[in-house]
Design a protein that fits this description.
484 residues; alpha/beta; seven-stranded mixed beta sheet; six-stranded mixed beta sheet; globular
């Protein structure tokens, strides 16, 4: 049985308290996770603080960049190990993890290494009251110890999305992976050891949220900043913890994202795009689509076509050929998603397809499987239209005018992402400006340039990461004024 240990000050650390890691495809126990207590979290934070004063803190930017490149190269060298760990943790299709999760997980280190060695700082020359001159220039200093609280849907990718820029800027990190996905964060400790990153720079503490590693980490006053991806309710709790000490936070939180499909769209591209955005990774994507609004002249055609696509998705374990949909992450999450399937029916939805659980082979019958599901016919007040589900499902509703589509898209407490499908360029720009989100795709979905700002509006988050925007959180700018 695999043991998932904490990684503290360059060493793997066992604890007396453990919990089970179960495979999403079968619900079988595949490992034991060693839960960090207050003592282990304190050791990790202390190690991270000492590393800031030690060899890591004394490295030049060039040397730090070289180490991050070495980390990326070692992840790629051990690509298959990371792939197997990610699949075991999440159950997602091999085709998805091998093309997105692991390559992006490695790339995040190189992207931010390149940014930090090329980013300019501001310089101003000014006149002084006595008739002289002064020069002001800015320097960037690392924020310090960063607490990184990670989600389970894209464990390696979203963790390195934060660790990459944090380390590029000279910080140290303490990672709290999701209790559901301990694998790749633990494995990454081996990579940091192998390439010679100083001890204490990268630390991992396993556990849960309340009264466990998550709470201990976010409340620890040795942590200088906290970055978190996950549901809004947890973000609120972390924000309350961060208020003590007035520590900065960067949050990417929940979403209830809309896709808006106009009658002049490229129909086949729109169907393909919404199929991905609604069902990819079994709907467990923060940027995924759960609300679809289709202009009335093509509404019936669109519903029929998306039904065909949903029913064509093969549900199964990652290694089976042609699998397009894996399991949900846990029994608890399956219960949540299927409860929304029941709510939709109770509130009067027309179930276009799905709405239940598929029949699986005996080996996988206890896995966390659900059917891709489409509804129509609900009012905008319905639970499945208002609340984030995080499963492979969407509700489709018609609209008539551009103004109505904007109103529908914005009628939510969230504001993470949207996609707009139209061949009218002027309309596309108008929609992008009017919809209250952090990210708007036009005729695409999940197309990401890592240099661009990423984050949510309203209840979907605080701050922006990506490119130079990450530097605003992971560094503190210091102004130096020199009187000439």
């Amino acid at each position: 049985m695999k043991q998932f240990l904490n990684f503290i000050n360059g060493e793997f650390v066992a604890t007396d308290k453990t919990f089970e890691k179960r495979a999403p495809v079968s619900n079988q126990v595949i490992g034991m996770v060693h839960e960090a207590g207050l003592s282990e979290v304190d050791q990790a934070v202390t190690a991270a603080r000492e590393a800031l004063k030690g060899d890591w803190g004394k490295l030049t930017t060039v040397k730090r960049v070289e180490m991050l490149y070495a980390v990326a190269d070692e992840i790629n060298r051990r690509f298959d190990d990371f792939l197997e760990a990610e699949i075991a943790d999440t159950g997602k299709p091999r085709s998805l993890a091998s093309h997105i999760d692991i390559p992006r997980g490695a790339a995040n280190f190189k992207v931010f290494a390149d940014i930090i060695k090329n980013v300019p700082n501001e310089t101003f020359q000014m006149d002084t009251p006595d008739g002289g001159k002064a020069i002001n220039y800015a320097i960037r200093k690392p924020l310090g110890v960063i607490g990184v609280v990670c989600p389970w849907n894209l464990p390696l990718l979203l963790m390195t999305w934060k660790v990459g820029p944090a380390l590029a800027c000279g910080n140290t990190v303490v990672i709290k992976p999701s209790e559901e996905t301990p694998g790749t964060a633990t494995l990454l400790g081996e990579v940091f050891d192998k390439v010679g990153v100083p001890k204490g720079v990268y630390n991992v503490v396993h556990g849960f949220g309340p009264n466990s590693a998550g709470e201990f980490l976010t409340k620890h006053q040795g942590v200088n900043g906290i970055t978190f991806t996950g549901e809004t309710r947890t973000g609120e709790a972390i924000m309350a913890a961060a208020a003590k000490g007035v520590r900065p936070v960067s949050f990417e939180l929940g979403g209830k994202n809309a896709a808006i499909v106009f009658e002049d769209c490229d129909f086949d591209k729109a169907i393909a795009g919404v199929t991905r955005s609604a069902f990819e990774n079994c709907g467990q994507v923060c940027l995924g689509t759960e609300r679809v609004y289709v202009q009335r002249p093509i509404f019936d055609k669109f519903v029929a076509a998306l039904k065909v696509k949903a029913e064509g998705l093969k549900v199964g374990p990652s290694n089976e050929p042609g699998v397009g949909l894996g399991p949900l992450i846990s029994a608890e999450h399956k219960e949540k998603v299927t409860s929304y399937y029941a709510k939709a029916v109770a509130e009067g939805a027309t179930v276009v397809t799905g709405g239940g659980t598929p029949k699986m082979a005996d080996e996988f019958k206890d896995g966390h499987w659900v059917q891709p599901t489409i509804w129509t016919g609900l009012p905008e007040t319905a639970s499945v239209i208002r609340e984030e589900i995080f499963g492979p499902c969407c509700h489709i509703a018609p609209f008539d005018t551009e103004e109505e589509a904007i109103e529908l898209a914005n009628n939510t407490t969230y504001g993470l992402a949207t996609s707009v499908w139209t061949e009218n360029l002027g309309r596309a720009h108008r929609m992008a400006e009017a919809i209250e989100v952090g990210l708007c795709w036009i005729n695409s979905w999940f197309l990401r340039d890592l240099r661009t700002p990423f984050g949510g509006a309203k209840g979907s988050g605080i701050g922006r990461e990506g490119g130079v925007h990450s530097l605003e959180f992971y560094t503190e700018l210091r102004n130096v004024c020199v009187k000439l």
